Every structure is written in C-alpha cells, then in structure tokens.
Amino acid sequence: MSSLSNRVKNENLEAGDHIYSWRNFFAYAHHVQLRGKNFVHIFTLVAGLNKNPAGSGVACSCLACFKRKGSLYRFEYGVTKIAFKLHLRGGTCTTAESDPKSEVLHRANYLFENGGFGKYSLFRNNCEDFTLYCKTGLLTIDIDKESGRSGQIADLVKMLPKKIKAKYFSHCVGLGRYGSDVGVRDDVIKVPVEDLVADNSTQDDENDHLQDNDNATQLRR
C-alpha cells in the first residue's frame, strides 16, 4: 500500500472490491463497487451508462468501460491511524472495517434493483459515498449535513477559505480528513439496506404529495 494509492491488476480483483481510477491527471478519482465482471456505482453523469430499472442514480456497466485507458486501485479498509495519515490523498482508504463480501454484494445489488440511495450529489452523495456504504453499511445520522462521507470531499473542504468553510461546512471545521473518516466519526450508524430503501421511498412519496398539493393550489389561483 503506497502513500498515494494501491494499484491492482485486473486478475487480482475480487467481487465485492471497492475500486477506483484516477481521472484528469490525478485531479480526482471515480469509485465503483465491483460485482463479478460488472460493477455498480452511483455516478449517472458518465456517458454510456444506462439508468437502472428502479430509476435511481445507481447504474451498472462493464469494467473496461470504467477503466478506459487508466489504471485500477483498490480502496483499503481497516487501516491504522498512522497508515491513514500517511496517505497523501483522501478517498484512498478508511479506518472502518469492511463487512463480509456477501453483505457488501447484497447491499450493492439491492440498491441497483430497488433504488433508494438517492440522487447524485458531489458533496453529499457521490460515488465514494455509495461504495463506502456498500462496504460498511454506515451512514451519517443527520442527512442535512453539508457533506457526506467522502475522503476526497474532506480534502477539498480542507483547502477552502475559512469563511466559506464556516458558512457552508461548519461541521467540518477543525476535524481535518482523519476526523471526517467514517471509522472514527461519532455521527454515523449502521443502516440495513432494506430500511434505507424503505425510508427513501417514503420520503419520495411525501415529496410527490407535497408537489401535487402545490400544483393544485396554483391551479385554484
């Protein structure tokens, strides 16, 4: 495991692996959850990816489509505090332990088939957030937090001016990348994937009901 990332060859990949590939000269990494010969991930704004049957942001594509001409890297779980801090970039490892492969694949497949992880959001709900959840089942308690669990976003927030952080990312101020890691945060809980999908479906129904009421009000005016 290097201080930048952990490169892995195709033949050494296993189903259930959390893998990523650097884009635009290491500007950022795109994360996916490997599912046999295919992978599942949440990024829907990539050309060539089809929306899943459930209509959520989780999509499935072939490994070659994701890899393009780049290299693959395996995200590391259960690293020590020292090893975590030695990594130069966020979004490459976590101190949180991964669940067994069967649980990881169940979450990924369930979300793909039933939706429920929500729409893509760079700061709150990105591809790294999705794969972290598949591997650990951990989610933040407060869904209104300005950012999710992504190590890359923690790095980005760290570089922002103090005034912007204080206004838009107040909960991240003073934490640093290590303090934002899901393995040490005190505002994360384990959420069964069935409960996550059910809760989000209920929320969607409530939002639709509110929208219908708004439309009806507009028509009466």
From TrEMBL:
Region: Disordered, residue numbers: 200-221
Superkingdom assignment: Eukaryota
Pfam families: LRAT
InterPro entries linked to this entry: LRAT_dom
Transmembrane segments: none
Domain LRAT, residue spans: 20-143
Record protein name field: LRAT domain-containing protein
Originating species: Rhododendron griersonianum
Lineage: Eukaryota, Viridiplantae, Streptophyta, Embryophyta, Tracheophyta
